[in-house]
Amino acid sequence: MEEEEYKKLVERYKSRIKEEFGATPLPNVQISSKEYTEFKAELYPLRYSLYEKACNFAASLNIKQDEKTNNKITKELATSHLNTTPAGVLGFAIIVALVTILLAPLVAFILPKIFGLEPQMILVLFMLIAGAALFFILQKIPSFMATTWRMKASNQMVQAIFYIVTYMRHTSNIERAIEFASQHLEPPLSLDFRKIIWDVETQKYPTIRESANSYLAQWQEFDKEFVEAFHLIESSLLEGEEARRLTLLDKALEVILNGTYENMLHYAHDLKSPMTILHMLGIILPILGLVILPLVVSFMAGGTNPFLLAFYISLMYNVGIPTIVFLIGKQILAKRPAGYGAVDISNKEGVKKLRNVNLPITKQFSISINPLFFSIGIAIVSIIIGLSPLIMHAAGSSDIFFDAEKQHSLLGYVCPPDVGQDCLESEKIGPFGIGASILSVVLIAGLGVALGLYYKLRSTNVIKVRERTKALEEEFSSALFQLGNRLGDGLPAEIALAKVSVTMEGTTSGDFFRIAERNIAKLGMGLDEALFNPKVGAVSAFPSKVIESSMKVLVESVKKGPRIAAQALLSMANYIKEIHRVEERLKDLMSDVISSMKAQVKFLTPAIAGIVIGITSMISTILTKLSAKIGDVGSGESAPGVGGDMLSIFGIGMPTFHFQIVVGIYIIQLAYILTVLSNGVENGADKLGERYELGQNIISSVLLYCILAGVVMLLFNMFANNFLPA
Q1: What is the rounded distance in angstroms from the CA atom of residue 641 to the CA atom of residue 645?
Q2: Do residues 703 and 449 touch, judged by C-beta distance below 8 A?
Q3: What is the mean pLDDT of the chain?
Q4: Residues 571, 575, 580, 583: what is their CA dihedral angle, to the nearest 10 degrees?
Q5: Could you give the CA distance from residue 231 to residue 504 in angstroms, rounded to a whole number?
Q6: What DSSP assignment string belongs to 289-310?
Q7: Whole-number pLDDT of residue 48
Q8: Span 311-323, pLDDT tens digits
Q9: For 360, phi and psi rounded to 5 degrees?
Q10: 163 φ, ψ to 5°?
Q11: How far is the C-alpha of 25 from the C-alpha of 532, rounded, in Å?
């Protein structure tokens, strides 16, 4: 009997709520363990799950750590939603480090024997250092993953508070507000919000408030403003007076906006010192070192294979320095506070196809080709062209000369200075020819263009959609003001949309409202379908979560009457305007640092390196000719021993062909790392913007380097040949 009375009481209150609010209750979505797991599996890249499996396998070693380190790693694993243990993390680091160290004899002794070379003790040292470094680096992977997760999530903090506040202005229900935010946020914060609800559904916590507070505890150290804003939202639930409740909600958004600006202000000031260190130690000094390196190599190369010298330099410039620059950059990004950032829309339905190259066959049909195929094709062709001097020499082809005096050759293989001028073809070293050097530039240009083109084709079409959507978002606050004012006059939403579309004709907002008005007038759709129809809806043409959430608020609030909807839209317009104002101030703060980094990527680094390669080419040409002349002197009877003494001082140097390939790959690596770093500092974890910038910067910097290197090489070689004629 009591149960029946309870059910009647519940039904009576439900009908009362429906009568007063006039809104259809949202479906009670059960977020089950299976759904959460599937959502996580879709979100997480393959490398995360592979890392989990590797750590879980290594956990069988059951190596204990001190409690403080254990707690720290446990928090990092929880932040990045990794299903493993601190013991597994340490075990994996130990296994990989030991395997690397045990491989040292194989790499140093057995592999050189296969290629007919002497054992290389320097490789033993390198592998030992690599093993020790990996032991410490692999223990930091949970920290790196947690930092990446926090960066991605912190980009959405302002939006998260915005969505919750927007929803709670018209419906004071924290559960529904968090669910609303999780539907409109992108991963990873959407996963965090889903987990808040999931923890309640699985009865880990009895109430949504306890679940939310448990989640907020992990942000207390990194973003106090987000925690404070969330607590203000929770406090609004306890307010009986409507005006006071709305004031607390407005205060929550104000707190996170002001806090974001202050944090970024401190970050911009603190960034100058580490960025200077990064530029000097990681970029400027290595580039300047390239100027001295050819001279050092010329003295080292007397008894050393030039190819091995190139390999040693490659270990330093293509492995060591890029790794150090990358790790320093990661540390800089780890300190970036919560801020603003763009959303990656490339995985959205309707936008995915834009990541490929679409070749139209007919008006209705087009072929979609992955840009990777174009990049692989360019890379293969450039590798064949670039390595053709080595292929020609291995095939026994004779050298090709470009002038009658035989000063400029294609291959330019020469006898080692300690052997004399009469040596077997297999004993010759090179290629020292200017033709081979130019072909090596083609190799680097092809690799750089292939990599840059992949990122460019992958992102250009998608970025255009996002820029168009951004243009709409920037003017959307004024559009919402106009729509809110029309609704405030008592007009139905359908008529208000039509009037605003006419008023804002010629703008992006006008186009948006015109699509909705057309769907209502010509297709007979209701307001909800006119906006959210997956095929012809206005929102589908402009994939923005801000616009989508605004229109959902309109659809929900208009059920309570035009005046309620007007208040909701006017509040949203104010929020959007404030968020945009703070974002512009933040961009202004970071402009000096960002412009310096971009100049480094686009001009300074490739220009200096291109000139250095020209100097190297000249030194190599001079040393090659000196070696030949010294060899002639040494073989003469009139001056016995003179040539041998000179040969003991000078080597033949390293071919520009090898040196240029090492430096060219270094330029590609630097362009990649600095672009990722500058984009991370400016926009946080914005993968779409990062891909677009990589496409732009890698192509421009590599082509500038290749053009300068080619021109300076030709000019300096002409000078060297005039200085030492054959």
Answers
A1: 6
A2: yes
A3: 79
A4: 170
A5: 39
A6: HHHHHHHHHHHHTTSS-HHHHH
A7: 63
A8: 888 888 898 889 8
A9: -70, 130
A10: -65, -45
A11: 19
Separation CA 232–CA 245 (nearest Å): 10
Per-residue pLDDT, 562 = 82
Q: Exposed (0-12), middle (13-18) or buried (19+): which is 273, by Cβ within 10 Å?
A: exposed
Do residues 237 and 174 lie in contact, with contact meaning Cβ atoms separated by under 8 Å? yes
Say how far apart CA 187 and CA 36 lie, in whole Å: 13
Measured between alpha carbons, how far apart are the two ends of the chain, in Å? 113
pTM of the model: 0.75
Distance between CA atoms of residues 667 and 605, nearest Å? 7
Write the CA distances from 696 to 325, 375, 601, 671, integer angstroms: 21, 15, 11, 10
Q: CA–CA separation, 468 vs 483, rounded Å?
A: 21
Which amino acid type is present at position 440? S
Phi, psi for residue 26 in degrees, rounded to 5:
-65, 150
Residue 641: CB atoms within 10 Å: 8
Give yes or no for a cis peptide into 306 (omega within 30° of 0).
Answer: no
Q: How far apart are CA 290 and CA 609, in angstroms?
A: 8
Angle CA 73–160–201, to nearest 5: 70
CB 606 within 8 A of CB 705: yes
Start-end of H helices in 24-170: 33-43, 46-58, 67-79, 86-102, 104-105, 111-114, 121-139, 141-154, 157-170
Q: Name 121's Cβ contacts closer than 8 Å, sequence gap at least 6.
A: 108
Distance in angstroms (rounded) separating the CA atoms of residues 400 and 491: 84
Report residue 245 as tokens. Answer: 């409740």
Tens digits of per-residue pLDDT, 20-65?
A: 555 454 444 444 445 555 555 555 555 567 888 888 888 888 888 8
Give the burial string for 252-262 (b: 16+ CB within 10 Å, else e): bbebbbebbbe
User: Measured on CA atoms in the order 72, 73, 74, 77, is the torsion positive or negative?
Assistant: positive
Nearest of 565, 597, 600 to residue 681 by alpha carbon: 597
Whole-number Cα distances in Å, 419 to 88, 409, 431, 487, 630: 56, 22, 17, 93, 12
Answer for the pair 702, 449: CB distance below 8 angstroms, yes or no: yes
Q: How many CA atoms lie within 13 A of 426 on its CB side?
A: 1
Q: What is the 3-state secondary structure (H, E, C) of 619-648?
A: HHHHHHHHHHHHHHHHHCCCCCCHHHHHHH
Strands 366-369, 357-360: pairing kind: antiparallel
Which amino acid belongs to residue 293?
L
Spatial separation of the C-alpha atoms in residues 717 and 162, rounded to whole Å: 63
- Give CA–CA dist 564/552, Å, rounded: 14
Q: Which residues have C-beta within 8 Å of that of residue 721, sequence separation ≥ 6?
A: 407, 408, 621, 625
Q: Which tens digits make up the pLDDT trace of 447-494?
A: 999 999 999 998 888 888 778 777 777 778 888 888 888 888 888 888
Count each helix (H run) and each strand (E run) in the chain, helices first: 31, 2
Instruction: Please give the Cα distance from 547 to 694 (Å, whole number).
Output: 28
Return the SS3 of 370. Answer: coil
Residue type, 606: P
Identify the three-state secondary structure at position 360. strand
Measuring CA to CA, which residue among 559, 679, 721 is closest to residue 20? Answer: 559
The token duo for 352 is 């995915």
Half-sphere exposure in the Cβ direction for 441 (13 Å, CA): 24
Quote the CA–CA distance of 284 and 293 in Å, as a whole number.
14
For residue 337, give the DSSP letter.
Answer: P
Neighbours of 272 (CB within 10 A): 12
What is the gyration radius of the CA atoms in the chain, in angstroms?
A: 33
Q: Residue 252: in which H helix or E strand, if any?
A: helix 242-277
Alpha helix (H) residue ranges in 489-544? 493-503, 508-522, 527-532, 538-541
